[in-house]
Amino acid sequence: MDSGSGLDPDNGNKGKGSGNGDRKFGAFLKRVEPFLPKKDLNPRDLRSWAKKTGFVSDYSGETSTSTRTKFSESSGFDLPKGRAQLGQGSSRKTEIDPILGDVTGSDSGSKTGLGEEERGRLNRNEDRDAAETSSENEGGKISKDLENGFYYPGGGEAEDGEWPKPIVMKYGLRDNPGFVPLFYYGLQHYMSLAGSLVLIPLVIVPAMDGSDKDTAAVISTMLLLTGVTTILHSCLGTRLPLVQGSSFVYLAPTLVVTNSDKFRNLTEHKFRDIMRELQGAIIVGSLFQCVLGFSGLMSILLRFISPVVVAPTVAAVGLAFFSYGFPQAGTCVEISIPVILLLLVFTLYLRGVSLFGHRLFRIYAVPLSALIVWTYAFFLTLGGAYDYRGCNADIPSSNILIDECKKHAYTMKHCRTDASNAWETAPWVRIPYPFQWGLPVFHMRTCIIMIFVSMVASVDSVGTYHSTSLLVNAKRPTRGIVSRGVALEGFCSLLAGIWGSGTGSTTLTENIHTINITKVASRRALVIGAMFLIVFSFVGKLGAVLASIPQALAASVLCFIWALTVALGLSNLRYTQSASFRNITIVGVSLFLGLSIPAYLQQYQPLNTLILPSYYLPFGAASSGPFQTGIEQLDFAMNAVLSLNMVVTFLLAFVLDNTVPGSKEERGVYQWSRAEDMEVDPEMQADYSLPKRVAQIFGCRCC
C-alpha cells in the first residue's frame, strides 16, 4: 500500500490483524458526512460528495480514474462498490453505504452479515477510539493528502523526527474576524514579503545609473502597483489570497536590457532611456499574457503543464542570480554574513519559538534581520569604521583622483548607511503617475524577450495557484479560473508598464511560504493591507528610507529569498512520483542545461569582462552571442532569450515532459476542478466566483 493513501485503515499495521485497522477505520467514518439524497437525485451531487469526503483522493492530492483503480487494488478499498477491507489478517469486510453512510459487515467465508454483537462492538469502538486515532495520527504516519496541505482539524507544525501534521488555517479564504485582526494580519502578510516587495529597485536602479531619488521613486511606484494589483486579483482574478508584485521572473531580463551595448556607453538620461524601453517591452509582453488568458489558450496549455515543468522553471528563477548574490553581498562581509546568519537562525533554529502567542521570528525573519543589521551598520558608520583620510563618500568614484581613495570608494558606497542622499532629495509627498519617465519606446528585440518571460511568469503562477488552493483548504480552481487569473496578471503587468516600475507584475511565489507560516488565508486581510500600501506609496520619504538600505545588506537578504524561491520551486515535485527516474532525469537535465547553456554564451563576449562587473557578466551576453542571422533586432532577442536560465530551463522541461512517455500519476499532472462541479457546489462558487455585480456585467453566473 502506498503511504500516500488518505483512506488506508491499516497503514503501518500490516500483519497485525484487524484491531488497529478497526480503530483507524472507525475514526475515518466519523469524518464522513452522510449523503442525503433529494427527491430529484442528481448523479453530480453524489460525485461531488465522494470527492469531498476523500473517496476519490489519490496519493498526490489529485483525482483520476486510473488512480482510483490502483488505490482500490493496493489498499483493499473497492470504491465502485463502497467496500473496504479492514485488515489483511482478517477476512471480515465492512461495507459503506454510499447514500446513508451506514456501516454493515459481512464475513467473506459465509457471506452473511455481521452478528449484532460484532456490529455493536464496531460502533462502540468508533466512539471510544476516535480520540486515540487522532493522537496516533499526530505522531505517526499520515497520508500524502495531509502532507500536500489538506485541512483537517487538530493540525499543526511537525515536530522533530515526526511526520508533518495537518495544516490548520487561523482564518480561511472568506473569514472576516473583524477590522482590527484584518488590519494586523494584512500588514503582517506584507511585512513578511518585504524583501520581495522593495529590494528589486535597489538592484535595477543602480544598474541603470539612476540616482538615489530615482530609487526612492521606483520603490514608491512598486508599492502603489502592489496594492492596486493585489486588490484587482483578489476581486477579479483567481480570488485566492495572493499578493501581486514585481517578480524576480522579470528581474533577469531587465538586467539583460540594462547591460546591452546600446545603453552601456550612455552617460546622459541613461536611467530614463532604459526605463522607457523596458516600459514598451513590458506592455507588449503583458498584452500577450492577456490574450493567452482571455482567449482560452491558457486552458489548453494547462494540459501540458505539470509539476515536472513548474519545479525546475521556478527553481531556475532563483538560481539565475547565483553570480550576483554573494559577489555583491561580499563587498561588505561584516554586514552580509550577520544578515544571512540571522535569517537562518530565525527561520530554522527559532522557527518553533512563540512570543505573545505568535512565532515572530519565523514570520518576520526578513524585516527583523534587516533592521538589526541595519542598526549595527549605522553604529559602524557612526564609529568611523568606513572613514578614510582624505576620502569623501559623496564624491562619485569616477571623479576620485586619489588612488588610495579609489580603493575604498566601492566599500564606502556599499557599506555606509549614509551613502544615500535619498532622504535629502525625496519630497514628503509624491504620487506616482502614468508615464512618469516619458513615453514608452517599442523595439522588436526587447518585446520578443518579454513575450517569452511572460510565458514563464504564467507557468510560475499556475504552480502557485495549485499549491495555494490546497494550502488554504479550498477546492482546486477550474481551468477557466486559472485562465482568468493569468489574464488579469497580464493586465497588472500592463499597469506596471504604464507606470514604469521597471519590471512586470505577477503572483509572488513567496506567497506560499507566507501563508504557510502565518496560517492566515483571508483575502479581506490582503485587501486591507493593500490599501495601506497604496497610502504608503504617496509618502515620498518612506521610499527614501527604504532606498537608503546599504546595497550589501539588500544583496544578503536577496541571497536568502532567491534560495527560498529555489526551494519553493522544487517543492512542486511532491505532487509527482519523485522517485521516478523519468522525472528526476528531466528535472536534472533541464536545470543543468538551463545554467550551462547561458554560461556558454558568455564566451562570445570577451570585451564585457573589461567593462562590466563580474556579477553583471551573465546578463551581458545578448549583444554578442553566437546567434547571428544578420538581423540585429532578432539576433539580440534570441541571444538574450538563450542567456536567460529560466527560459532555457522551461523550454527543455516542457519539451521533455510532454514527449517522454509517462503516466499522469507519475508526472503528477495537475487535476483542476470542472466547470460542472462549480455549478453545483455553493462553497466553490463562494471561493472563486466574481462579485455579483461584476458577474452580471459579463453575463455569467459561475465565472
Description:
The protein is globular, with a radius of gyration of 28 Å. With 703 residues, it is an all-alpha fold. Helix 6 (179-192) packs across helix 24 (523-537), helix 9 (212-236) packs antiparallel against helix 22 and helix 21 packs across helix 22. The two termini are 40 Å apart. Residues 1-31, 56-114 and 130-164 have low confidence and may be disordered. It has 34 helices and six strands. The chain has a four-stranded antiparallel β-sheet with strand order 1-2-3-4. Strands 5-6 form a two-stranded antiparallel sheet. It has helices spanning 19-31, 43-53, 65-75, 116-139, 144-147, 179-192, 194-198, 200-207, 212-236, 251-258, 261-264, 270-294, 297-301, 307-319, 325-329, 333-349, 360-363, 365-382, 403-415, 422-425, 444-471, 479-499, 511-518, 523-537, 540-547, 551-570, 581-601, 608-611, 632-642, 645-659, 664-667, 675-679, 682-688, 692-698, and strands at 77-78, 83-85, 92-96, 103-107, 244-246, 505-507. 50% of the residues are buried. Helices cover 58% and strands 3% of the residues.
